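User: Please write out a complete single-protein record containing the residue sequence and its fold in token form, without commentary.

AI:
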Amino acid sequence: MQYRTLDNGHTSFEVSTLCLGTMFMGTRTDEETSFAILDRFVEAGGTFLDTANNYNAWVGGHGRDSEDVLGRWLAARGNRDSLRIATKLGAAKKDPDLPLSTTPPTNYQGLAASTIDREARESLRHLGTDHVDVLYGHVDDLETPLDETVGAFGKLVDEGLVGIPGISNVALWRVVEARETAARLGVAPYGAVQQCYSYVYPRPQPIRTNWATSELLDYARSTGTPDRPGLAVMAYSPLHQGVFTRDDKSLFNGADHAGSRERIRTLRAVAAETGATPNQVALAWLLGGEVPVVPVFGASSVAQLDEALGAMDLVLDDDVRARLDAA
């Protein structure tokens, strides 16, 4: 396993460069299998785990099922101090009787100060811990003033309940303004951004604020200086939900176009030539990029996890990377 340091100028710690997403642990993935996956990840040197307060509500759970599974596993293994835990808040239903939507009215809980404080403390209870290392706003909230949102995250950091605040599904200009707001308020800034990012990419229109853009990566590369605190980019759906290996899976969220299909053909060809799997090549492409990101990947079996871990040993030479980039 390889490691990198997350540092937002206020808090600093090391994480494994692969982050295990636990999205459906406790629902689609039963507890026994979840424990086996978590055990194997730690055995391989993994230290970074990712969850949220609402995932399992999408598939028949109460929402915090994965937090509960993680909490029971942490208690059983007694290894909390050797791991870094990230969770998210703000995208659960505000009104449980209404549907969620990506367009107004969204029915998200949002990122008001009272919501952040309440939901963070509830996550700690479900995880069975006194702090989380990264706490994300799950979806940007344009209706709540940034002073309120950023100040609420900063308060949790000051209380020792959160290590590094972060944000997900957000436009770059909002990241920059939020970090400037944190500097003005004298609180810890966002040090992590989690966006959808993989070897395939969406059409440029309509504007999609949930994808990692080249501008976001360039901005992240410019950070880590005394006047610009560090910002790490995390990539969710790095394997695009199976499309690199399965023809029955669909490209989603604007990525269904000829460019993506050509990329998948090239990815599979490179995998065949290198003796790796397409998923391993896709993860290695992310890990070894000019601006490295932290892939947040999920596994529903130990075999799937072991395949992903194989990406750590795969180094793409310059010619191969240039070929992948050009597709």
